[in-house]
Amino acid sequence: MLNPIVAKPLKESLLSMKGFSKRAVEEHYKLYNGYVKKYNEIADKLKNVDLSSANQTYSDLRSLKTELTFAIGGVKNHEIYFDILGGAGSTPGEMTRSIQGWGNLDEFKAEVKATGLAARGWVWFAYDHDRDFYFIYLGDAQNTYPVWNATPVFALDTYEHAYWMDFGSDRGAYIDAFFENVDWNEIENRVAAVKK
Ligand SMILES: [Fe+2]
To answer: 178 CA to middle of ligand 1, Å?
Structure first.
């Protein structure tokens, strides 16, 4: 049984980020809120779905279960994304530096940026619990391509809605601005939590 979920509040610090207009962030937050509402709507419909008509080509069960992954992906990805922004001026801590394994921060950022230019939806930096390493991977939608038993430490939204209003088609400039506003302290907390 899926319990209803509640949207997290928008952090005040996100409304004054360098390069990001208040309106763009507020509109983005509305989209996140929309995913929360749709998740709850789908969860509610699943309570009474007709199991006897399940079919892989089309069935209510198939549609609901598929779109549930899109909705919850939208919720989780945006929660990570909003959590690790709003930290302009923060600097990467020792732990964050030590786990990067990319030589230096600039090389790490370069791979994230390139991955962001190659992605259609998301970039994640995640810890693989099975192999004990961190990696950078991409998704083309909220629900592609998950990697099992890995915990994202940060998420970078590369959907056009994340940057078009402030950066036009210049996704690279948006990713540069993303890094200027990253909250390294929050990432440090996430790295510490992963290691437990
Ligand atoms: Fe988004």
So the answer is: 13
CA atoms within 13 A on the CB side of 124: 25
Domain boundaries, given as residue ranges, for the chain: 20-196
Report yes or no: 125 and 77 within 8 Å, Cβ to Cβ.
no
* Span from the CA of 112 to the centroid of ligand 1 (angstroms): 17
Q: What is the pLDDT of residues 55-73, one digit of tens each?
A: 999 999 999 999 999 999 9
What digits encode the pLDDT tens for the residues 134-171?
999 999 999 999 999 999 999 999 999 999 999 999 99
Architecture of domain 20-196: 3-Layer(bab) Sandwich (3.55)
Model confidence pTM above 0.70: yes
Centre of ligand 1 to C-alpha 75, Å, is 9
* Residues less than 5 Å from ion ligand 1, measured at CB: 157, 159, 162
